[in-house]
Amino acid sequence: MPAKKRTVRIGNWYKSDDEKVHFVRKRKAPRPAQLRKIVPGQVLILLSGRFQGKRVVFLKQLKSGLLLVTGPFKINGVPLKRVNSAYVIPTSTKVDVTGVNANQIDDDYFKRTQAQRRKNEQGFWAKRGELTAEQQTAEKTRLDGKRNTQKSVDAALITAIKKTQLLKQYLGARFTIGKTTRPHELVF
Amino acid sequence: MVLAKFVEVGRVVKINYGPQEGRLATIVEILNDKRVLIDGPTTGVQRQVIPIRRLTLTKFNLKGATRGARTGVITKAIKKSDPFAQYAQTVAAKKVAKKALRAKLNDFDRFRVMILRKRRSALLSTQLKSLKKNTGGKAQTQAKGGNKKK
């Protein structure tokens, strides 16, 4: 969040009295939320949203404080995604992520483009055809780029996952609670 | 019914209640009809007075335990013949160990157990089917096991 600065405009306004300048706490750079002992490569259980119950691999924490996770996509359909750490259960299972390169992905990767915003503006009636030709090609290249990034990030991950027996199936399954499960007694 | 488990010096006991719940110890001295002095140097039980009510007697005895023996003597006796290890072989002890292990399973372990149970069940059902087929429907359903699950 940008710091609110007390500015005095020269010209229109002259200080008549000594205005009391209240103590303004210097805003430091925004601190990302403290990670509660979540380590890159750790398997997390997503608790909310479309992918609730899915087990995903944690890659890194972004500047905004959100966690970058990936399914991997081929295994459980979860793409590169930002996730709030409050809506996540960290498990003690870890995947080897030494070969995974997610350095080029940051919060800007997830920013909505103009074309997307325009589409949202038009709402329900928006169709792909209503984008201009160049917007369409731009969209296509953007999506292809995203697909490639997903593939490149997941490639090393999937080879690491295949080394452990049943880990692939584990990540493909959803976490569920039945009648007799006691979540407060479960060790994750 | 012949009484076999006595409260006596050397009797291996299991603590039922209190902060040491679940641990084993030996009776070192009998104080009165309700209280004993126990000690479990190898099982992490401090030498202490404890009501008999809080104990379960096991069928094992520590050989070489004398009345009022100090912890050192008890430890030496345990080194010679370890009744605690013998107790760990009993069915009851194994059940407790199994329960403790299951409580410690993490999410991935639980998933693996589920898959293994399914596989075992599939193996059993194919065995059963073949048995039924071979003996014309009057099969003795002796289930022969697949993998040992946790």
Automatic annotation (TrEMBL), chain A:
The record's keywords, sorted A to Z, are:
Ribonucleoprotein, Ribosomal protein
> What InterPro entries does its record include?
60S_ribosomal_eL6 (IPR000915), Ribosomal_eL6_KOW (IPR041997)
Q: Name one GO cellular component term.
A: cytosolic large ribosomal subunit
According to its UniProt entry, one GO biological process term is: ribosomal large subunit assembly
Transferase in keyword set: no
Q: Keyword NAD on this protein?
A: no
* Molecular function (Gene Ontology), one example: structural constituent of ribosome
The taxonomic lineage of its organism, from the top, reads:
Eukaryota, Sar, Alveolata, Ciliophora, Intramacronucleata
The UniProt family comment states: Belongs to the eukaryotic ribosomal protein eL6 family.
**Species for this entry:** Paramecium primaurelia
This one is known as 60S ribosomal protein L6
What's the domain of life for this entry?
A: Eukaryota
TrEMBL record, chain B:
User: Which Pfam family, giving just one, matches this sequence?
Assistant: Ribosomal_L14e
Keywords (A to Z) from UniProt: Ribonucleoprotein, Ribosomal protein
Molecular-function GO terms, alphabetical: RNA binding; structural constituent of ribosome
Q: Which residues form the KOW domain?
A: 6-33
GO cellular component terms, A-Z = cytosolic large ribosomal subunit
Q: Supply one GO BP term.
A: translation
Q: Which InterPro entries does the record associate with it?
A: KOW, Ribosomal_eL14, Ribosomal_eL14_dom
Question: In the UniProt record, does the keyword Translocase occur?
Answer: no
| PANTHER family per record | 60S RIBOSOMAL PROTEIN L14, LARGE RIBOSOMAL SUBUNIT PROTEIN EL14
| Full protein name | KOW domain-containing protein
